[in-house]
Amino acid sequence: MLYDKLLEIYKDIGWEMEQNPNDSILSVTYAGNNAEWIFVATTDEPNKIVVMFARLPYVCPPEKCAELSVFIDKVNFGMSHGAWVMDRKDGEVRFRVGVDLGTMELTFEYIRSLTLYTNMTMEYYLSGIRSIIMEDKNAQEAFDITHR
To answer: Which of 67, 94, 139, 141 matches a 20 to 30 Å C-alpha distance to 88?
Structure first.
């Protein structure tokens, strides 16, 4: 099962994942250089899909959602894999990556790479997102902050 394989891989790298096997969800608090956030890995066993996401450590207030959406659109347009998403109802922001394994084998290296990519992307863009939510920067200013 994919869930068990993920759990085994994360144990091998020393991560103590919170487990919710009924919903096929694993999570851990990930410490980046500038913040901590929740990293989540989920599986859809029948369809052989693995989804990972890093959830922003704070929410976007309603009055900032429009500006953050402009930033997210600008960033997503240049990405080859994964996407930033925001729930406008509660302000939750995530960077999400998924893979349809089809006939591929779920390997340690593949999961390690996808996990690092998910968390490093959160780390890279966090300063720009934070600048909109907490410092009243506009989307272009935030984009410039992340691309110095």
So the answer is: 141
